[in-house]
Amino acid sequence: VSAAGTAAVAEMTPLRRGRHGLPPEQVRESQRRRLMAAAAESLLASGYARLTVTEVAKLARVSTAAFYKSFGDIWDCLASAYEANAGLLCERVEAACREGDGGRDERSGAAIEAALELLAAEPALAHLLCAAPPAQSAELREARGRLVLRLSGLLGAARQGGVPTHHARLIAAALGLVASRLRAEGAEGLGNLAPTLTGILLSP
Amino acid sequence: MHDLPGHRAASAQRPDDPQRATIMEAMLVAAGQHGFRQVSVKNVLELYGGHRVQFWQHFASKEECFAAACASWDDRLVAELLTAAADRPEWGERLRAAVIALFEFVDSNPEIARSLLIEAEIAGGEALAKREEAVDRLGAAIDLAREQAAPGEQPPPLTGLFVAGGIAGYVGEQIAAGTAAAIWEGMPELMRFATAPYLGEEGAEAEFEAAAAFVERRARGEEKQ
Predict the structure, then answer these.
(1) What ipTM goes with this model?
(2) What's the whole-model pTM score?
(3) Residue B197 φ then ψ, to 5°
């Protein structure tokens, strides 16, 4: 199990039963994190069509009443999970751009590889971030729009100019390709996308 | 989900059965209006106008009906796009013609387009597999441009799939955002995106300009609407 995978499992681990002496805010925060992780896992397992609050709460080992104390509905929970995981992905990419060896092109290539490595290690995260969000959830669509915007800003810097809308289209298509390959070949194959994405995204 | 096994007439199994085709179209329209999660067989019957027994004679569930409808209409849409592209001499023109045909399909069939491009992803299973197969086929057609590229200048593997998926994604985004009516405005940028991996920056800019000119002519009523 990768370091990232271990972290995801830890998110799902409930607090021990009985008196643990933790303040209510900490309990609530633990439940919230578990629910977000469970929503992503449940989405991967069941898809949008069969995703329910009951299933997510059960997987997180939280009551449905506790679910509704943290989130308004299933879309609210998924959108929060999306924001948190999108932040994680962007931090990985930004770190690779900033800290990698070599010139700009090498660091940009390393950033794409770092993103694919994270997505391959965390299929639930990959599916949540990359699959097209449902039309009925404006929150999810907006969260995806913010991810695309943030990544396309990084891509614009890597390409040293160009049209922002073009960069956004490239990033959206890259997310779509990851979702498609994830479904076709599983998470293990995502690393193989590096040459394709590097070739397309970083070419003028 | 209500599964009524019942006895299905032999004619009901035929893909070309007119009653079956009408129910499938009603399913896509209803799913486009309500979303796949919310749509019910009752919604389909309200649009179809027939008796519920007829639905269950053809399909065992909402999911089965939706998947069959997606399969049928995905095939039809892919055939329409490839036909639109077929008689154009240059690859860029063929791609532009296919994009125009796709946008016209969305204009004419907004609910069905939403079902094929968005709700299939929500439904998953066979419906999504069929959508992916359609994108694969279009990606393979797009990737024919690879043959014209000089050795060493060919785009990386899966470029056709990347482009076809990106075009489908753009249309899906517009429909989901409720801005499908403005779908044409993004066409020049979409053409730049789709052609850049094959034609490079200069060629893609030319395709951007050609698409922009088309959109202007269309806005003036000089292209068919």
Answers:
(1) 0.89
(2) 0.89
(3) -65, -25
